[in-house]
Amino acid sequence: MAAVLRRGVKLISSGSSQLLSGGCKHGRTSTLCISSSRPSSSKINVELDSSTGIAVMRFQNPLVNSLNLDFLTEICISLEKLELDKSCRGVILTSAQPKIFSAGLDILEMYGKNPEHYAAFWKSVQEIWLKLYGYSKITIAAINGSSPAGGCLIALTADYRIMADNPRYTIGLNETQLGIVAPFWFKDTMLNTVGHRTAELSLQFGLMYTPSDALKINLVDLVVPEEQVLSTATETMTKFLAIPGHAREISKSMMRKPVVDRLLSCRDADIKNFVSFISKDSIQKSLGQYLSMLKQKKS
Ligand SMILES: CCCCC/C=C\C/C=C\C=C\CC(=O)SCCNC(=O)CCNC(=O)[C@H](O)C(C)(C)COP(=O)(O)OP(=O)(O)OC[C@H]1O[C@@H](n2cnc3c(N)ncnc32)[C@H](O)[C@@H]1OP(=O)(O)O
């Protein structure tokens, strides 16, 4: 159940199984409706401040916010609800997990499973990208940890990226390092942000950038001390909110629609392509080796 934190602010824990359809109003505070059962299974929490219209969505999928099917679905449903909620004007995306924004797509969803599973998973990856890249409201990524591959993609869909100034955190599309290939819409999102030449080098090498290097190539817009990431995101959101909404929204759509439309025109083919690629023995072998490397890193 939503709990009032301070005047006009509600904490919304949302497990995908707990979300009900449609938003609802509770007195002066507009929030999402959820049932009160099993709130501990929530992989995200959302705080919507109805006095400012700013929602903060925190990812909390232990250990590293890897994007599995359930988590992606939950994020998508919450984003949809916020988009429909008139009291919400912008969403800040951040992490509740220490040191990690998101570890990207959950590799276990792409390893050792059957084609039907791969297809359902890829559909949910498409959904989250379509929802975020085409999002009508303002989104700001408050990147308070490492953000490889799919984690970087989530950040790239935001209207503005603010990263914590910690050289241990890195961000980038590192797919080639896993022996896999970022699909065209990952590539387009990167290209629209950093330009052609930088995207080309970045994708081929699977480069991961420290915050200061990410700033140099415009992969992020601002680097601030870690403890200021959220407050700076809120300040930045306020600047966005000062712009007439319809004009900003149309401008955003004008910039992004061609890329969104490109995926919309070939969703099924893109899923087929993914399933056939990820099912190859050589790709499964690469992913298996990468998973072993992640485990060995600890010992
Ligand atoms: C030509 C046609 C092309 C068509 C398109 C086809 C294909 C495209 C396909 C896919 C695109 C994929 C995009 C992706 O997002 S792939 C995922 C990339 N992610 C990574 O490389 C991140 C790997 N992880 C790390 O670098 C570190 O774990 C991290 C920096 C995130 C955290 O480091 P830390 O030291 O704190 O923690 P660890 O001990 O390493 O990890 C803890 C625990 O979590 C497991 N884990 C980490 N990342 C993932 C992940 N992405 N998926 C699943 N599991 C992950 C890790 O193995 C540890 O597990 P355990 O040992 O505790 O069991």
UniProtKB/TrEMBL annotation:
A molecular function (GO) held by this record is:
delta(3)-delta(2)-enoyl-CoA isomerase activity
Source organism, top-level taxon: Eukaryota
The pathway that the record names for this protein is: Lipid metabolism; fatty acid beta-oxidation
Q: What is this enzyme's catalytic activity, as reactions?
A: a (3E)-enoyl-CoA = a 4-saturated (2E)-enoyl-CoA; (3Z)-hexenoyl-CoA = (2E)-hexenoyl-CoA; (3Z)-octenoyl-CoA = (2E)-octenoyl-CoA; (3Z)-dodecenoyl-CoA = (2E)-dodecenoyl-CoA
Gene3D superfamilies attached to this UniProt entry: 2-enoyl-CoA Hydratase, Chain A, domain 1, 6.10.250.170
CDD domains in UniProt? crotonase-like (cd06558)
Q: Which Pfam families match?
A: ECH_1 (PF00378)
Enzyme Commission number: 5.3.3.8
Places the protein is found: Mitochondrion matrix
Q: Name one GO cellular component term.
A: mitochondrial matrix
| Coiled coil regions, renumbered to chain | none
Q: What does this protein do?
A: Key enzyme of fatty acid beta-oxidation. Able to isomerize both 3-cis (3Z) and 3-trans (3E) double bonds into the 2-trans (2E) form in a range of enoyl-CoA species, with a preference for (3Z)-enoyl-CoAs over (3E)-enoyl-CoAs. The catalytic efficiency of this enzyme is not affected by the fatty acyl chain length.
Subunit comment: Homotrimer.
- Name of protein: Enoyl-CoA delta isomerase 1, mitochondrial
